[in-house]
Amino acid sequence: MNKIFITAVLALGSLSAFAQEESTAVEAAATEAAATQDDFSEVSADELPEAVTAAVAKNYPTASIDKAYVNEAKQFKLEVSLEDGTAGTLYADENGNWIEM
User: What pairs with residue 67 in β-bridges?
Assistant: First the structure.
């Protein structure tokens, strides 16, 4: 009876160790995906394409661009603030089309 109990404990212990390894692998993959998705380099607002600044001015007339970033796909991440004190992040392609990230 004692051997059955020990075998059961060992079996459960190995299953939870396997689940822990799998969970860690999933977390690592999620972290890597987030890092890849946010592969933007900071640029000055002067370097933004006219289409992007025009889209901000048209859709958010009270917004000011605080920081701007670009990735290899020529997608722009814009940190903006409005006159009422609210702030947010917008994403646009080089043609001034809004994209969701």
Answer: 79
